[in-house]
Design brief:
Elements: E1 6-9, H1 13-24, E2 30-35, E3 38-43, E4 46-52, E5 62-66, H2 70-82, E6 86-93, E7 102-107, E8 113-118
Parallel strand pairs: 1-4, 5-8
Antiparallel strand pairs: 2-3, 3-4, 6-7, 7-8
Helix pairs in contact: 1-2
Length: 125
């Protein structure tokens, strides 16, 4: 990985936190630390994704989270929709990227495009 962590502002910390916790749970991602105006998400206690309410949110951005397999991509998509996200393309192969690119996209709070992606073939699941 080329960065230690990434962060950005959101307009409503509680709304974003509730959405992300539910949407990313199928990927094994959860809160690793939090404070009054911020939260850090990650795996196995290591925070890598920070968001906070310290100013105006940036324009819609795209963030892709790694999934271990295609089932996790599908579970992410379902969980994100159940958490109030808007479908931005259901689980499927994106052969324009490469033959095994399997992703799903959901628009969350502040219009950000969240993706879960797996790069393994179906036979590797």
């Amino acid at each position: 990985m080329m960065f230690d962590h990434i962060g950005f502002n959101v307009s409503n910390l509680d709304e974003s936190k509730a959405f992300l916790v539910r949407a990313l749970a199928p990927l094994g991602i959860g809160i690793t630390a939090q404070g009054e105006d911020w939260a850090m998400l990650g795996k196995d206690g290591t925070g890598q994704f920070w968001f906070g309410a310290f100013g105006l949110p940036q324009g819609p951005i795209h963030i892709a989270f790694a999934a271990d397999d295609r089932c996790q991509v599908e579970a992410f998509h379902a969980a994100a929709l159940a958490a109030g996200g808007k479908d931005n393309d259901a689980s499927g192969v994106r052969s324009q990227y490469h033959a095994n690119y399997y992703g799903a996209f959901v628009i969350g709070p502040d219009g950000h495009n969240y993706e879960a992606v797996c790069h393994q073939s179906a036979s590797e699941d």
